[in-house]
Amino acid sequence: MTDDAERHAQKMAKKKAARDKIMSTKTGEKGLIVVHTGKGKGKSTAAFGMIFRCIAHGMPSAVVQFIKGGMSTGERDLILSRFTDLCQFHTMGEGFTWETQDKTRDTEMARAAWEKAKELIRDERNKMVLLDEINIAIRYDYVPVAEVVEFLATEKPAMTHVVLTGRNAHDDLIEIADLVTEMELVKHPFRSGVKAQQGVEF
Amino acid sequence: MTDDAERHAQKMAKKKAARDKIMSTKTGEKGLIVVHTGKGKGKSTAAFGMIFRCIAHGMPSAVVQFIKGGMSTGERDLILSRFTDLCQFHTMGEGFTWETQDKTRDTEMARAAWEKAKELIRDERNKMVLLDEINIAIRYDYVPVAEVVEFLATEKPAMTHVVLTGRNAHDDLIEIADLVTEMELVKHPFRSGVKAQQGVEF
To answer: Is residue B198 included in any domain, yes or no?
Structure first.
């Protein structure tokens, strides 16, 4: 072995030992509260990726879309056409608030979505429940954050994962979450006049 | 209508008009160079979500995993068991560098993965090609960044989307990318002793 290769092997062996030691302390299992927020892309996409993971593992899951057509029609079509046995899909919202322009109706729809969400989370058969774009409903106070936090703290079954997405996640939600990722926008093709495209954005 | 409801409707109508005006200027279509980077979670998960979107739309796609078992075995199993007609899947790497501890072998594997990636990108039938964890191969200089940048700039078919993931994306890659998202770690359950769990992390 050359000196360089040997140094590399030694360095990596040390790194592996350190990593294995750390990982050996991570033995707990629990249902996580996961939040995807930030202005960047990938919040819903990564959440739907987790739903596909559950499908792959045969774990029953459920999705409530608080905002219809959160640009994820591809995933919805795929789940509805192939995987309804493993994933319940409920699209409760009617569109972004600036599309409906009707606050009373938006509030009613968000409330109905939240009631459905609670029902799905309480059902222990669901191993993961995705509340897509709920942060928007919370931000407009259609669903009070205190109600969401209290429900998750007191009624979520211990082993159920709940994933909440949308910009501007409320601090109180981040406080109780186990795993929070902020998707930060570094560069976006809209800036150079490119429209939303199939496969990338929906 | 109450005053409050009317104010809301007017405000949202304005917002919609402004948004529609902006969106009407976004008419271009092109194959994007998409980068998911940062220390947070969701880089590969969101990229695989885009692959599932392509599958949903019947768009042929391909995946090259530069690091084997980048914690996404669920997606791989699902694609290999159900969607090989629409998505080619190549796992070329053998593990993280600290697992293999062999620089020569890591370099050979990364080079082979990059050769496969070029072949898949050149094939115009593929509408999206995901190079999962390539940023790690670039960072260790197993694949020179200049070679990747030049290939994408000169040989990528105009309408093909290429998605590159992994921490520490090289500045030269960010420079030529159309869409860059940094997944930022806000909170991680490892910190409280919880291990990687099915459905969430793999």
So the answer is: no
